[in-house]
């Protein structure tokens, strides 16, 4: 199943995330979501009504717009490694979310500990591609779709045998919102 949706210029990320969740889970309002790059939680401004539990991971604790139900203040790579080793046990999850800090890299700047604005998303020597790979590993391990926001469609086959399920293209540059799922799942969602 491959769905392309084009959204108007100026559409906010939280409107797009709400649209994606309504396409993925049209009859569900009891979702458990893990966000590996949570930030202030703006993604969930509209979608919160569909979500029972938000598990947030970030290297900083910000002034949240949407408060998560559970928060891990560690790098997402370390979080994923702990989940894979069963050092962190998670509830049954419906969706893994990642919005890596790719803006500086897209502009040709090396990853740094400065981040994309005043928010220090970057961890020294870690780029957004590796953060995304860890997100794919977690989604594959948990058997859940991965919702991503990135400057290119992900080609995920090498890590988790996934296919693009939904791509939303936003103008103003090009920003892709996509959903990947392991191809072995069939039509589970």
Question: How much strand content do the residues show?
Answer: 15-25%
Distance between the termini: 10 Å
Rg, alpha carbons: 15 Å
CATH topology tier name = Rossmann fold
The overall pLDDT average reads 77
Judging from the principal axes of the Cα atoms, what is the shape? Answer: globular
Helical fraction equals 10-25%
Please identify the structural class as seen in this structure: alpha/beta
Structure overview:
- The protein is an alpha/beta fold and 189 residues long.
- It has a single domain, classed as Vaccinia Virus protein VP39 (Rossmann fold), CATH 3.40.50.150.
- It contains five helices and eight strands; from the N terminus they run βαβββαβααβαββ.
- Strands 1-7-8-6-5-2-3-4 form an eight-stranded mixed β-sheet, with helices on both faces.
- α2 (76-84) packs parallel to α4.
- The chain is globular and about 40 Å long.
- Mean pLDDT is 77; it is low at 110-125, 158-162 and 184-189.
Secondary structure layout:
Blueprint: E1 3-6, H1 13-24, E2 31-35, E3 51-57, E4 70-72, H2 76-84, E5 95-98, H3 103-106, H4 128-142, E6 146-150, H5 157-160, E7 162-170, E8 175-182
Parallel strand pairs: 1-7, 2-3, 2-5, 3-4, 5-6
Antiparallel strand pairs: 6-8, 7-8
Helix pairs in contact: 2-4
Q: In a few lines, what is going on in this structure?
A:
The protein contains five helices and eight strands, in the order βαβββαβααβαββ.
